[in-house]
TrEMBL record:
Protein name: Helicase like transcription factor
Superkingdom, taxonomy of origin: Eukaryota
Domain Helicase ATP-binding: 279-515
Domain RING-type: 668-709
Phylogenetic lineage: Eukaryota, Metazoa, Chordata, Craniata, Vertebrata
InterPro entries given in the database record: Helicase_ATP-bd, Helicase_C-like, HIRAN, P-loop_NTPase, SNF2-like_sf, SNF2/RAD54-like_C, SNF2_N, SNF2_RAD54_helicase_TF
Amino acid sequence: MSRDSARGYCQYNICRGERNYSCFSSPDFYSSLGLEDFLSVGDTSGAEEDTDLAILYGTLRGSVVGLRYYTGIVNNNEMVALQREPNNPYDKNAVKVNNVNGDQVGHIKKELAAALAGIMDNKLALIEGVVPYGAKNAFTMPVQMSFWGREENKEAVLDQLKRHGFKLAPPLKVGSECGFGSKWISGRAGPSYSAPVHAAVQLTTEQLKSEFDKLFEDLKEDDKTCEMEGAEAVGTPLLPHQKQALAWMVSRENSNDLPPFWEERSNFYYNILTNFAEKKRPKNVLGGILADDMGLGKTLTTIALILTNFQDSKPLPVEKITSDKFYELMEVVKLTNVFFNLPTTSASSYNCFMSIIHLAALENFQTTVVSYLQYQVTTYGPSSHLGGEVKRNPNSNCFCYDQFEQHIHQDFRVNIYVYYGSDRSKDPSVLSEQDIVLTTYNILATDYGVSDSPLHKVRWLRIVLDEGHTIRNPNAQQTKAALNLEGHRRWVLTGTPIQNSVKDLWSLISFLKLKPFTDREWWHRTIQRPVTMGAPGGLGRLQSLIRSITLRRTKTSKVKGKPILELPERKVLIQHVTLTEEERQIYQSVKKEGKAAISRFFSEGTVLAHYADILGVLLRLRQLCCHPHLCINASSSFSADNKTSEELPETLVSKMKLVLSSGSDEECAVCLESLTLPVITRCAHVFCKPCIFEVIRSEQPNAKCPLCRNELRVEHLVECPLEEEIDSSNGKKSDREWISSSKINALMHALVELRRDNPTAKCLVVSQFTTFLSLIENPLKESGFAFTRLDGSMAQKKRVEAIHCFQSSQAGSPTVMLLSLKAGGVGLNLTAASRVFLMDPAWNPAAEDQCFDRCHRLGQEHNVVITKFIVKDSVEENMLKIQNKKRELAAGAFATKKPSASEVKQTKINEIKALIDL
DNA sequence: ACCGCCGGGTGCC
DNA sequence: ACCGCCGGGTGCC
């Protein structure tokens, strides 16, 4: 059956919706660059930057006045929030007092407010309040305030208070909110003035991380070990741990429990962290975080959930197609088509009809929107300039769609729809007729604020964020958009719930709409600070919160005493290749020239200024190791180089572009990972867009390039799509007559041998350079191999075809797949292959591993053998050495600190030396 | 009395 | 608010 409906809306409008960035003069400028995701534009909740560094300056007793004018009520010992109200017509210093629910309780008395206003406006301190007693007073009540801030601001704060005649009590007492001690368990976290704050030693990153890991490791065989069978429509048999996850997810969705930290007490619901109480029963999230390691089948489990738990553990009513049913359906198709006046022959009319059945079956319920980052190709500008007109790659959603289809039993019909953004010309009700709507965060964000966006109008039955950890920036439009979707069953799928710190969890929790954590202040006061300050009980809180909403298994977890995954063995062999005389000659001459240039840069001290040139040299050498024809502009740019070391930025930037467009998997010097969304600086260094924007944000207004300390400005950044996102013109490969290379010979020899020993064995041939893959096609044809190809430049439909074709076990199906290193997403499944030939090494060993995991994963039945071809006495051997160093570093230093900018710089320089044998 | 004192009106910011 | 503060009424002992 055709799945044309999956194509969905094709137009992609950039609509920013209405945002009010009153603090910034030119919001359009920022949003046109997509910058609001990275700079805290319009963020009014300042001071929370670097909250980890905050210390307690002291406390002060004040009063809340005007109680009778407001509806917000508090309990004794309840936390309150202080909020500046600069536009109050009676007093520009006004400070509002709100309860945990956000309802105003009153105002800070004006004399005090006059002292606080400056502190708050200049973000010198975070002021937090607790009402110790007198909560039932009619006119005023006391408030105990704690002042938190960075050491260097302490004097200024004390000074400001002094000028208004206030003095902080020394921080000997600790307010109730941190609950230092374990009293939060018993509730009634009354003010405890016993524990000295000095006992609250900050945990190091390492300590924290290992504590987090314990959060999950400690999970005993508890309530999460029940198993549940998937509905009939689930097409893939579930493994025991997936059945456990399914049972847990279903029970979460059907649960009637109170959310964590809430208790019912005499007709009231109490939050034992904040002491907030209300009559209304707080909503629990009918969902949570599925945090299994990559490769354990989170997506499959979620598909099973969608099909299995529609209402009260009943499956989603999807049509089962039997033969007579099919006939019956065809009859209705005709009728429907008449009714809707649709052309009877087209596939789309069939889809339209399918939608109608499900609408009837679903009544008013819409079902699930799954936000897919895992498979997303993010928007990029066609002109490669930031701020240029943003265009979407229309072919970016194949794999998620494919994966959904592949796990749903073919006898069942489920409407799956890929949503590409709002389009006014289409009827928005299309979405509500679907069983499953797939989209990406960016589309979600783009649609957010579009007044007639169907995504944000539909009441979803279930909202799933795949790769949910990417929602980490609380100010990002994506986060806000995800948060605003309506629907009670909410799930986050992520293999890395915590990457750096507890902070990472907040956005996930916030998405789940767990009261009161949606507001950062309460999260921070009740969970994050107690944990990072090492307050006893802090981790306990975090643990009980996480445990109640998260399921996490790692690859080493066990189910009923057995390892969760029993993957076949995986071996990595290195096959050395010797270049022919001619190849060696070309290689050596390019190397000699490059080495001379690079040593000149070293002696001039301009290595980093010539980063693009150096990467260019290294790239040419790497290409020459593969095939002489890869090196398009082998004639070096140095040969006639009579200019000084100062090159025009434009030249350097275009050199860098050239390197990136070759397909080379370069690294970002900020995150040290493979580049995602590369942007080139004016000084011709390349970073991930999010990474460099974070640098700019944190160093503004005078940000400097992490590598060379040159001026860094957003306007100068040039976005550079990765090779696989460009429609690479495969056409012009026949310029030259085809010749072989040592590496190709080595590959072909191995392939022929493999075919002789095992004619049905399938293998992946992987390279970073798609032109190299094209060159390999020739001998494959000549030797009669059936092969297919998957690279980033291919249209979506072709990709799906290639994967299906390759995964097929039919006789005559391709045994070789030419695969570009970075093609496809993490979810790509190529388990049909049991051999991998890696034609060229990558800088980043993790990028290689990730590629190997596409076949060495769940579903692989054979031992996997990986062969890396490495040219002897070449840059490739040096690359291996560097790779090994990185591996050691990564393995030994699980929790070591991120290297500093200067360390990164030095490492890079050392690497360059090592690579070119200097 | 351009004061003190009294007692009613009144009440956040 | 069973307060403070304000401002009008008032005024020997």
